[in-house]
Amino acid sequence: MKTVKCEICDADIQGEDFEAWFKAAFAHWTVEHADIMKQMSQIMKEMSIPHGEQVQEKHQKELREMESEINPLFNHLVQPG
Ligand SMILES: [Zn+2]
Fold it and tell me: Rounded to 5, what percent of the chain is helix, strand, coil?
């Protein structure tokens, strides 16, 4: 059983193995932190569309800001246990 606390709200996220845990974590973020997930997917979507330099700079700034929120979550994914 793998248990990791959510960095955003301190909820315990559990799964039998990594795959189960990741699904639980993803479901948790989708439900409890829908605004962050929505922002992420929106930025990802817009990043995949060719833009002028100005727009890309804007999104790079947004992405960096998002990364500071999201990175602690994903850091857990690469840590064993
Ligand atoms: Zn949470």
Answer: 70, 10, 20
Give 50 Cα–ligand 1 centroid separation in angstroms: 33
- Tokens of residue 37, six digits: 């997930």
CA of 60 from ligand 1 middle (Å) equals 25
What's the pTM? 0.54
Query: 16-63, pLDDT tens digit by residue?
Result: 998 898 889 889 988 999 988 888 788 777 777 665 666 667 777 777
8 A C-beta contact, residue 55 and residue 74: no
Distance 25 CA to ligand 1 centre (A): 8
